[in-house]
Amino acid sequence: MSVLITAPAHAAKVLIFGDSLGASYGMAQQLGWVALLQKNLLEHQFINGSVSGETTAGGLRRLPALLDSVTPDLVVVELGGNDGLRGFPPTQLENNLTKIITLAKDSGAKVLLTEVMVPPNYGPRYTKKFTQVYQDISKAQNIVLIPFFMQDIAPHPELMQRDGIHPNEKAQAKIATWMQPWIESALIQ
Question: Which of 84, 83, 25 is nearest to 50 (CA)?
Answer without folding.
Answer: 25
